[in-house]
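Reader question, answered in our methods column.
A reader sent in the components of a multi-part assembly and asked whether the whole thing could be modeled at once rather than chain by chain. We filled in our standard form and ran it. Here is what they sent:
COMPLEX SIZE: two components
ENTRIES:
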Amino acid sequence: GAVVSQHPSWVICKSGTSVKIECRSLDFQATTMFWYRQFPKQSLMLMATSNEGSKATYEQGVEKDKFLINHASLTLSTLTVTSAHPEDSSFYICSASKGVGGNTIYFGEGSWLTVV
Amino acid sequence: KQEVTQIPAALSVPEGENLVLNCSFTDSAIYNLQWFRQDPGKGLTSLLLIQSSQREQTSGRLNASLDKSSGRSTLYIAASQPGDSATYLCAVEHGGKLIFGQGTELSVKP
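And here is the structure of the entire assembly that came back:
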């Protein structure tokens, strides 16, 4: 089956610094990638939808200048958390699809971010 | 706005029991509905995908049904095992996005 890889699996960073998380589709071209955030004991909340070669579409309440999303190729999307604060500590999960509207969506294994 | 609700939030059963997890959604205009399993601190594993035109899907001890008109889905787990302990999430694809429920945390005790 299709595989989506996230890197790093976990990262610790200092407040005020930026951290980048990568999401790769390993065996298919992903025209659409999604980024989710999950706080402990809560469900996945969609942060943004990114389409290859265009700007990401952010969900209401998500700061686009803080969570920078780049989808430069059909196999790679990156999420950069800028000027990280402890409240940004969370589990970030990406997913990838060959296209919206009924195509199977594959999930990465997630990335734990801890901001100290 | 599409909202997905899962009941119960948590469930604890003895090994061997059959159980049902419930999922409801407010807007019936969905492409599909998926059930996922999430182990603590891990990503998601897709269990079953039901297209909007289908009424159920089966995989091993799992059976998922979909009643789109009433906005409901159930996940039936037969002969539960301790290894089934995890959080089960349902999600609907709506407007090009996956909208998740809050999950049901299942504990199967030996």
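What stands out: The longest strand of chain B covers residues 86-94. Residues 39 and 108 of chain B are 13 Å apart (CA to CA).
Send us your own complexes using the same form.
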